[in-house]
Amino acid sequence: MRSYWVVQSERGLALEPRDVPTPQPKEGQLLVKVRASPFNRGELLTGHGAYDPNGKAAGMECAGEIAADAAGFTVGERVMGRCVGGFAEYALMDTREAMRVPARLSWEQAAAIPLVFMVAHDMLVAHGKLERGEWLLITGVSSGVGVASLQAGKALGAHVIGTSGSAEKLAKLARLGLDVGVATRGGGFHEPAMKATAGKGVDLVVNTVGGTVFAECVRTLAFEGRLATVGYLDRTLKAEIDLEALHAKRLHLFGVSNKLRPAAERAQTVRAFEKDFLPYFADGRIVPVVDRVFAFDELAAAHEHFDSGAVVGKVVVRM
Q1: CA distance 294 to 301
Q2: Are 146 and 173 in contact (CB under 8 A)?
Q3: pLDDT at position 50
Q4: Is 203 helix (H, G, I), strand (E, B) or coil?
Q5: The two domains 2-113+288-318 and 116-255 share their CATH topology (first three levels equal)
Q6: CA 200 – CA 194 distance, rounded (Å)
Q7: Residue 3, beta-bridge partner list
């Protein structure tokens, strides 16, 4: 079957086309005929994970049809979820992590959901305890996780402040409910956030940018505020913590990653996501933002567009 692999080269990470055998599912796995799979930033950051010198099957999530009967599923059912090797004609998915696709969603929309919206659920609901009427700040709001957090935050009834280096992107996101847009590629959001919240500060921060804005995120938090660290696009992995603010304001700082989580724990998050968020997609309250769709044979062009800095939402490859 046709597939793409992430390989390390002198120039960094690259996507290499390969012809490989169709994977064979083991017990507890689904064989999925892939219809669409999106790009994810973490998979393509040098040093973000451990890479086999022979390469690693590319694509961390997909939407497609069940290709072989398995416990609880039948051939032809539409599913979406995390997977191994989503940029291929067939991929393997843990049965516990598979979710049935709501009827109203296209393949491309379904593929754009699993990772970013489950991460958003982890940050906003499971750990962030975001309540209706609270203020949410998202640094790098135009990223895949940023847009998902914006849409989920609005669905939960929060007010949302977002930062982006592009005023054009902020204008697009205002149509999705962004209450306050701050045009900046780094810091400089503390004053607008304090003004928007009448000096109180924000209740929850989703930091997709990294260490260069960490201190300002802490400074912008309200009493008993929460700070989720989910990315480091600035490649800055260290930052100072204001212990006085942490102590006096009773802050909660946490990280969000699936890298070290056991499969059983990841499966539990899927069930919580299905309960809390899947109805939003089923009834149209949230429509996944797909920036652009490319054909499978156009993957190199899709990768180039993904790295262009012009993306709002998810870039999806369609089989």
Answers
A1: 8
A2: no
A3: 46
A4: strand
A5: yes
A6: 6
A7: 18, 88
Beta-strand runs (E) in 53-194: 56-57, 61-66, 78-82, 90-94, 99-100, 135-139, 159-164, 180-183
Q: Give the tens place of pLDDT for each residue, 129-158.
A: 999 999 999 999 999 999 999 999 999 999
Please give the backbone phi and psi of residue 118, each rounded to the nearest 5 degrees, phi first: -70, -35
Residues 6+ apart with CB under 8 A from 98: 30, 32, 73, 79, 80, 81
- Residue 49 in this model has a pLDDT that exceeds 70: no
Task: Please give the pLDDT value at position 51.
Answer: 55
Question: How many angstroms separate the CA atoms of 153 and 139, rounded?
Answer: 14
Instruction: Supply the pLDDT for residue 8.
Output: 81
pLDDT exceeds cutoff 70 at 110: yes
pTM of the model: 0.94
Query: What percent of the chain is predicted at pLDDT more than 70?
Result: 97
Tell me the fold of 116-255.
Answer: Quinone Oxidoreductase; Chain A, domain 1 (3.90.180)
Q: Would the pLDDT of 47 be above 80?
A: no
With a cut of 60, say whether residue 38 has pLDDT above it. Answer: yes
* CA separation for the pair 303, 42 (Å, rounded): 13
Contact between 86 and 62 under an 8 Å Cβ cutoff? The reply is: yes
* 249 dihedral zone (left: phi>0; alpha: psi -120 to 50; beta): alpha
143-158 burial, b at 16+ Cβ within 10 Å, e below that, comes to: bbbbbbbbbbbbbbeb
CA torsion 272-278-280-281 (nearest 10°) is 160
Q: What does the alpha-carbon distance between residue 115 and residue 234 come to, in Å, rounded to a whole number?
A: 21
Architecture of domain 2-113+288-318: Alpha-Beta Complex (3.90)
Given a contact cutoff of 8 angstroms between Cβ atoms, the answer to whether 182 and 201 are in contact is: no
- Would you kindly state where each structural domain of the chain is located, as residue ranges? 2-113+288-318, 116-255
**Residue 202 three-state SS:** strand
Q: Which of 43-47, 141-145, 270-274, 294-298 comes out lowest in average pLDDT? A: 43-47
